[in-house]
Amino acid sequence: MTDNILPEQEELSFEDFKSIIISDYKIAYESRQASLLGRKEVLTGKAKFGIFGDGKEVAQLALAKAFKAGDWRSGYYRDQTFMLAAGMLTMPEFFAQLYANTDTDADPGSGGRQMNCHFATRLLDEHGNWMDNTKTKNSSADISPTGGQMGRLVGLALASKLYRNNSELEYLKNFSVNGNEVAFGTIGNASTSEGIFFESVNAAGVLQIPMAISIWDDAYGISVPAEYQTTKQDISEILKGFQRDEKGEGYEIFKVRGWDYPGLCETYEKAIKICRDQHIPVMIHVTEMTQPQGHSTSGSHERYKDKARIAWEVEYDCMLQMRKWMIESAISTEEELTEIEIAAKAYIRDCQKKAWADFNSLMKSELETVVEIIQGTNDQELIKTANALKASVDPSRKDVTGMVRHAIRVLRNEHSEAKQQLQLWYQEQHDSNFERYNSKLFTGSIESPLNVNAILPEYTDDSKIVDGREILNACFDSNFSRDARILAFGEDVGAIGDVNQGFAGLQAKYGKRRITDTGIREMTIVGQGIGLAMRGLRPIAEIQYLDYLLFALNILSDDLATLSYRTKGRQKAPLIVRTRGHRLEGIWHSGSPMGVIINSLRGVHVCVPRNMTQAAGMYNTLLRGDEPALVIECLNGYRLKEKLPSNIGEFTVELGKAEIIREGSDMTIVSYGSTLRIVEQAAEELEKMGINVEIVDPQTFLPFDLDNLCSQSLRKTSKLLVVGEDVPGGSSAFILQQVLEGQNGYQYLDGKPRTLTGKPHRTPYGSDGDYFSKPSVDDVIEMVYEMINESAPDKFPKLF
Ligand SMILES: Cc1ncc(C[n+]2csc(CCOP(=O)(O)OP(=O)(O)O)c2C)c(N)n1
Ligand SMILES: [Mg+2]
Questions:
Q1: Residue of the nearest CA to atom 11 in ligand 1?
Q2: Which residues pair with 253 in a beta bridge?
Q3: φ, ψ (nearest 5 deg) of residue 108
Q4: Which of 128, 310, 434, 493 fits as disulfide partner to 443, beta carbons 3.0 to 4.6 Å?
Q5: Model pTM greater than 0.85?
Q6: β-pairing verdict for 720-723 and 629-634
Q7: pLDDT of residue 298
C-alpha cells in the first residue's frame, strides 16, 4: 500500500510532513537499487533484457501523490517508481517480470509475457469480467512502440468527460464516479517527435478532457540528443500555443525540474486539481532528468554522452539532489538516510533473491522429473546431457523441453517405459505451455461474441426494399436505443451521419455525446476507441475508408490486437472499428489490403460482410459481445437494394460462420465482400455454358469458416478457385492455407487450386482502370472455364 499521500495541508504537522518525505525517499531509493540490481541480473544472464527507471524517480513520487483510486495511467517503461509509490506494483513483481516468470501470481500484469518495466494492472477478473475500476488505481497495459500509449490515453480521458456529462451512464458504477478520474500519460522527450504525440495533444485540446501528460525529459532518446529530436530542443516551449488563454480553450502547461522534489509536488498538486475539477488537459514538462545507467542494458551511455554531460548527470542525479535538500531543510540527517539506504539495499537484494528462487525452483522441479526419467533409459549420451543440465545453475524451460524432445527422437526405435514417460510428460507440458505462452489471444469471457446465439433475420410480406445504407441506419438506431453505452465517432460521422449516411439523423436523436465528428486523426480515433472501451463503454470508431486504415494500423496492431494477449486476459477493449472499402474509384478509394490486415490483426475479429444486411447482423453480434472487431463494409453497396428485416436490431450473424450462397457441383469458388457480386454474375453466365459453380462466402476472415464449409464443398466439387481483390499472395494465400492445410481440403482436389486476385499495383481511377486491375466478371468466367477445360477439354474447348 502506498503511504506517500499528502494529507490536506491544514492538518499536516512538520513531523507528518517529514515522515512522508522520508518514506518517499525510501521508495525512490529502493527503486534506484532495483534498477542497479536489475541491470546486473541481465549482465549475468539471468534475465534477457533490462530497461529501468533510474534518473526519473523523484518526479514520479510527485505524480503518485496526485494519482487517486479510479485514475488511469497510460505510460511507458520508465515508470517503475510511480508504480511502486502508487502501490500498483510490488518489488517481487518487478523482479518476477524481469525473469519472465509465467506464474500469474508472481507477475499479475502480464504473466511473464511482457518485457520488464512494461506495466499493467488487472481490470478483469479471471473470467474476463470487469472488476470495480473506481476502487483500484488503474494502469492500461504498456506497449513498446514509442508514443504508442498516447492514442489510448485520449480515450481513457474522454471517458471521464462522458461519464460526468451523460446522466444515462450513471448506472455504470464500476467505471466512474462523476467523471472525476484523471488519465495520466507519461512519455519520453524523444518520443514526443512521433506523429501520434502531436495528434493526441491536439485531440485532447479539442476535446477538453482530463488528460495529464508528463514528459520525462532527459535530453536524449537512446543516443540521439534533443537537437535532432525537438525544435528549439524544448517541447513545452514549442507547444506554448496550446496554452489556454483569452483566445480559447487549451492546455495548462507546466515546466519543472526533475530533481526539484518540492517544486514537483507543488506542480503536480496544482496541475491535477485543474485537470480533475475542470476537465482541462494539462502538460507537465519535467526537465533536467538523467539516465545514470544509460538507456537500457544494450549499451553504455558513455558511448554518446560527453564527459561534461556525464559529470552534470552525476551532480544533478535526482536522488542526490533530493537527499541534499532533505538534509539542508532539516527533514532528515545524513545518519538517518544512510540507515534507510542500507536497509533498502538489503531489502531489494532479498526481493531479487526470492524472485529468482521462485522462478528457478519451478524450472528445477521440471528438470528433476525429466532427469529422473532419462536416467531410467539405457542411453549413456542422454544421461550425460541430463546430468550436465542438472548441474547447471539456471536451467530454462527451453533447455528442459528441448532435452525431452531430443530424447524422444533418440529413442524413436525403442519401446521402453522411460520413453513412454517422456512422451507423457511432454504431452502434459505441451498443454501447460500453451496456456503459459499462447493463450488469451482473445479474452474468451462468457460475453465473447462467439457465444452470441444465432438469430435469423425475419421478413414479412410487406417488408420494405430499401437502400443498403438504410439497413445499417435502422440497425444502429435500434442498438443505440437498446444500449446507452454505445457511441460512434469519426470523420463526418456526426452532423451528416457518415459519408454514406449510416448514422444519418442519429446525432439529432441521440445527441452529440453519442454520435460525433472527430478531426482527421486516424491513430487517435482508434486510440480513443480503445480507451473508451477499456472504461466500460461500447465505442464504434469509424475510419472513413479502408485505404486510410493504414494510418491507424500501428495502433490497431500494436495496442488493440495485443491487449488481451499481453495481459493474459486481464484487460480488454471491446472496440468495433467500422470502415468501408474494396471497390469504388481511384487508387485510394478502392483498396482491399486484406492480407495486410489479416496478418497484422490477430487478436481482432475481421468481418467482411457481402452486403449491408450481413453487416447489420455482424454489428448486432459484436455489440452484444466483448471482443474487438473490424467490420469492412462494401463501399459500392450502400445504394444497392436490400429487404429490411423486421428484427433489424436483433438478428445476428455468427462469427466464423461461412455460407454457401450458390450451390453447384463443378467447382468451389471462395470469395468475400464486393467480389462476391462479380462471382455471382459470372456464375449465371457459366451456368448457361454448362458449368455449375458453388460459391462460399466465409463472411469473416478471423475467425475463418469454423465449420469447414469450404472443404466440405471441395469434397463435392474437387476444384478450388479463390477470388479476391487483394494483391496476389495476399488474402488469397490466407484462404488457401486455411482451406487446404487447416481444413485438409487438399485431399479432395483433382488439380491445381487457383487464385484470381487484383494486380500487384493499386487500382487506377475510372471504370476501365478497375476493369483491367481487379477481378472482373469476364476474368472469373475465363478462369473457371480454363480450369474446367483442363479436366474436360473435349466438352469445353480452349477459348484462347
Ligand atoms: C516506434 C518505435 N521506434 C523506435 C523504438 C526504439 N526505441 C526505444 S526507446 C527509444 C528512445 C526513447 O527516448 P525517449 O522517448 O526520450 O525516452 P527515454 O528512454 O529517454 O526515457 C527508441 C528510439 C521504439 N521502441 N518504438
Ligand atoms: Mg529521453
A1: 221
A2: 283
A3: -70, -25
A4: 128
A5: yes
A6: unpaired
A7: 87
State how far Cα 592 lies from the chain centre. Answer: 22
Distance CA 24, CA 65 (A): 10
Backbone angles phi and psi of 67, in degrees to 5: -90, 120
Quick check: helix, strand or coil at residue 4? coil
Alpha helices in 208-260 (DSSP H): 226-229, 235-238
Residue-level pLDDT at 299: 83
Residue 643: count of CB within 10 angstroms of its CB: 14
> Strand 693-697 and strand 667-671: pairing?
parallel
Give the pLDDT confidence of 519-535 residue by residue, as tens digits.
999 999 999 999 999 99
**DSSP per-residue letters across 585-616:** SSTTSS---HHHHHHH-TTSEEE--SSHHHHH
Residues with CB under 5 A from ligand 2 (ion): 188-190, 218, 220
Instruction: Please provide the size of the chain in residues.
Output: 800
Tell me: cis bond preceding 728? Omega within 30 of 0 counts: no
Q: Which atom of ligand 1 is nearest to the CA of 191?
A: 15
Q: Is the Cβ–Cβ distance between 693 and 761 less than 8 Å?
A: no
Q: What percent of the chain has pLDDT over 70?
A: 99
- The three-state secondary structure class of 363 is helix
Question: How many Å apart are CA 693 and CA 678, to the nearest integer?
Answer: 13
SS3 call for 124: strand
Enter the C-alpha cell of residue 215.
514528459
Distance between CA atoms of residues 32 and 185, nearest Å: 22
Query: How many CA atoms within 13 Å lie on the side-chain side of 107?
Result: 29
- Report which secondary-structure segment, H or E, holds 467: strand 465-467
Cα 401 to Cα 132: distance, rounded to the nearest angstrom: 40
The pLDDT tens digits for 452-499 are: 999 999 999 999 999 999 999 999 999 999 999 999 999 999 999 999
Calculate how far, in angstroms, residue 147's C-alpha sits from the geometric centre of ligand 1: 8
| Nearest by Cα to 521 from 542, 501, 506, 538 | 542
Q: Which atom of ligand 1 is nearest to the CA of 554?
A: 1
What would you report as the CA-atom Rg of the chain, rounded to the nearest whole angstrom? 30
CB 442 within 8 A of CB 572: no
Helices (H), 582-691: 594-600, 612-622, 675-688
User: Taking Cα atoms as reference points, which of 527, 598, 520, 517 lies closest to residue 556?
Assistant: 527
Alpha-carbon gap, residue 726 to 684, rounded angstroms: 24
Q: How far is the CA of 57 from the centre of ligand 2 (A)?
A: 14
For residue 754, give the nearest of 733, 772, 725, 777 by alpha carbon: 733
In the three-class reduction of DSSP (H, G, I as helix; E, B as strand; rest coil), residue 245 is classed as strand
Q: Which residues are catalytic?
A: 589
pLDDT of 1: 39
CA 150 to ligand 1 centroid distance, Å:
14
* Distance of alpha carbon 152 from alpha carbon 162, whole angstroms: 15
